Amino acid sequence: MTFLGLFTNPSFFVLLDCFANTYGLSWKDSTMIKADDISRHIHEYLSGRSRKLHVEEVRIGLGYVGVLLEGDRPGLSALLRNELPPGCGTLDKAGTLAGSDASELLDLLVNGRNPLEKALGLATVNAIICPDIAEEPERDSIALMNLSPADRVAMVGYFGPLVEPIRKTGANLRIMEKDPNRIEEILDRKDSDKILAECSVAIITATSILNNTIEEILNRLGNPRHVTILGPSTPMCGEAFAGTPVTHLGGSAILDHRKIMQIISEGGGTPNMRPCLRFIDRKIKRLEKT
Fold it and tell me: Is 64 part of any domain?
């Protein structure tokens, strides 16, 4: 292997991490993303706009949270019910959310005490920015990855409908999922570290924003050519991800907000909402590791 080839080999970064951990060093200090950076950047970018809007309606279902702001601005977020702490069965502010300032719900994205409160914050983010993406055409995020048998795909969060299409490309797919009810094999830290460090494509669930793992996941990546934050909850706010390894945001635009709010209230999930959503993809500037 040539000297330059060493630095293009993903395994090199795994070995370098081991060396750094052994001697208390950090080779990635200059590019490390700090905990909660993504949420804070989103909040900072939208805080001014949020103070001009009021909440009209809030729906909390079994799988999703929906927020409707004045001016027919809908937004949604997945709800990580399995990660709610014991006793978190009700919302203290229930009965007061409608009519409140959107800024109060937006604040929950950074100050939320649990995944439910953070989901309200993320749904509010998506409601604020919904006019920005209303006219964007539907795009297939998987097709944009141009996968081939040479690719190693790390899927963080189980996206069932995408598994077979990815495998049909011949790409090597490894799935990392925390919920044992959704997948048979739960990988240990050593295996997941290796997969993230060596992948050429990473698909990361937007719910990693809700459980505060997104920064850690991004920091564990080697140097993939394509990194997508994916799911209906994805905040299509490229400014918040500038300077990170993320190259694409794969989210959704709501076509019929009344139907979406009904589906959320009736305990529906993504398959129920799909006819009312347009899946979109936005390319953003990324950080190249040096």
Answer: yes
Least confidently predicted of 60-69, 241-250, 278-287: 278-287
Q: Using the predicted structure, report yes or no on whether residue 266 has a pLDDT greater than 80.
A: yes
Q: CA nearest 237: which of 249, 247, 252?
A: 249
Q: Tell me, yes or no, whether 256 lies in a domain.
A: no
Residue 12 has pLDDT above 90, yes or no: no
Structural domain boundaries enclosing 72? 50-133
DSSP output for 177-213: -S-TTT-SPPPPHHHHHHHHHH-SEEEEEGGGGTTT-
- Residue with the two structure tokens 């460090």: 197
Question: pLDDT tens for residues 171-194?
Answer: 999 999 987 777 767 788 899 999
> Can you give the pTM of this predicted structure?
0.86
Of 3 and 156, which is predicted with more confidence?
Answer: 156
CA gap 276, 260 in Å, rounded: 7
| Whether the predicted pLDDT of 53 surpasses 80 | yes
Lookup result for tokens 């899927």: 155
212: left (phi over 0), alpha (psi -120 to 50) or beta: left
Q: How many helices (H) and strands (E) does the chain have?
A: 13, 9
Q: How many domains does the chain have?
A: 1
CATH code: domain of residue 66: 3.30.390.100
Please list the residues that pair with 210 across neighbouring strands.
Answer: none
The residues, any chain, with a CB within 8 Å of residue 144's CB and separated by 6 or more, are 248, 281
Domain assignment present for residue 271? The answer is no
Residue 218 inside a domain? The answer is: no
